[in-house]
Amino acid sequence: GVHATLAQAQQEGLLDLVLAVADEQPGDLAAVAGWLAGARAAWPQGAGDLGARMERMLLRALAQGAPAVLLVGSDVRGLSVHSLRVALATLATHDVVLAPTPDGGYGLLGLKAPAPMLLRGALPWSTPVVASVTRARAAQAGLSCATLDGLHDVDTAADLAGMHPVLSVLVPVLDEMPALPARLAPLLAQARALGPAVEVLVVDGGSTDGSAPAARALGATVLEAPRGRGTQLRAAAARASGRWLWTVHADATLEPGMVARVLAFAQRGTHPWAFVRTRIDAPGLLLRVLGMLTDVRAWWLGLPYGDQGVLVKRSLYARVGGYDAIPLMEDVALAARLRRLGRPARIAGPGLRVDARRWQRLGFWRVTAGNLGLLARFLLGRASAERLAGSYARALR
């Protein structure tokens, strides 16, 4: 929601956050001041209609040296750090930016100078023409006005019920540069196109190569957790808001339309867990056949690997205990518990392309045999996840 987005933007130093409080009752200012950690101050809005109060906050911020001001409603949803970055960048070339809402109003208004004609006087607040009248006033005042991607606000109980995303995408990351931006950008673009129904959470395990800042620069929500994919994914799932959890490894590239297909599968609700089709992202008959056999193995054994995009309904995830905080085989451990309650479905259509670097560097047979050996030892209980992680690290040298 807007709370988490503004807190992250403040943490990243993108903006200086101030709460503008409608202090209608004694103690309102103090009560609201603690709502958002990291806010520099809480200012009373004072008297007057909404336009007068917005202008008062704008003038106060500009008087304190702010080069630009974004006025954001506390009831909006769909706001992201990326949309805040876009709004600030657009203000470099426009006088006014505005993010409309479906009811005809707007959830964000940005300016970089006083604009008395814009907000003073009788604006038809709470009507379907607020945004259009504001744009018309900007034109009359000779101000260039840019319209941003729309936001949604909460006016009714039905709006409130739709605030939480359907799908949370969990992306564990550890030292994935320089390839991370090229792989993460399509995922974020597909998710944004679907609006608030999808959220993407990148969880970094202590990267030292700039992976976390690179993800933030793309507009991703970035969490931090102790190193270890199981630990990272467990932390991301605990923070996720969606009714479904979908794991996508950072070395995977999405096919076009993949997020929409996964969302549609989740919304149908016909099966509580699933995986997507994968292929190894490299030419060659052996790797192409291996990708096909991987799908067959996942369906036949009911044990998809984590890089096959495991999707699980949140309630089922919680029922089986979620991801284990282990350094390896967290995907197999989760799938084994899910399999006891039913086999996974496979989501139709092109899915994920998996990075081929291990096969290319170490050789097809060595990697394939090593993976199968690790799986067998884990399932037969002949080695702990910690011991297997050590064997896996040595095999990659």
Features:
single chain; alpha/beta; 397 residues; 4-stranded mixed sheet; 8-stranded mixed sheet; 43% helix; 16 strands
Characterization of the model:
- By secondary structure, the chain is an alpha/beta fold.
- Helices cover 43% and strands 19% of the residues.
- The chain is built from 17 helices and 16 strands.
- The chain has helices at residues 2-11, 28-33, 50-63, 81-90, 116-119, 130-140, 157-161, 180-193, 211-217, 229-239, 258-268, 285-301, 314-319, 330-339, 357-362, 364-379, 385-395; strands at 18-21, 41-44, 69-72, 76-77, 96-100, 106-111, 145-147, 152-153, 167-173, 198-204, 221-224, 244-247, 252-254, 273-280, 311-313, 345-354.
- The strands form four sheets. Strands 11-10-9-12-15-14-16-13 form an eight-stranded mixed sheet, with helices on both faces. The chain has a four-stranded mixed sheet with strand order 3-6-5-7, with helices on both faces.
- α16 runs antiparallel to α17 (385-395).
- The model has no long low-confidence stretch (mean pLDDT 81).
Short description:
Helix content is 43%, strand content 19%.
Which regions are unreliable across 5 or more consecutive residues at pLDDT < 50?
none
The dominant shape is elongated
Helix content: 40-55%
Compute the number of strand runs. Answer: 16
Main sheet specs: 8 strands, mixed
The value of Rg in angstroms is 24 Å
Q: Spatial order of the strands in the main sheet?
A: 11-10-9-12-15-14-16-13
How would you name the oligomeric state of the polypeptide chains in this document? single chain
Averaged pLDDT: 81
Distance between the termini: 43 Å
Structural class label: alpha/beta
Q: Tell me the fraction of residues in β-strands, as a range.
A: 15-25%
Q: In DSSP terms, counting alpha (H) and pi (I) runs of 4 or more, how many helices? A: 17
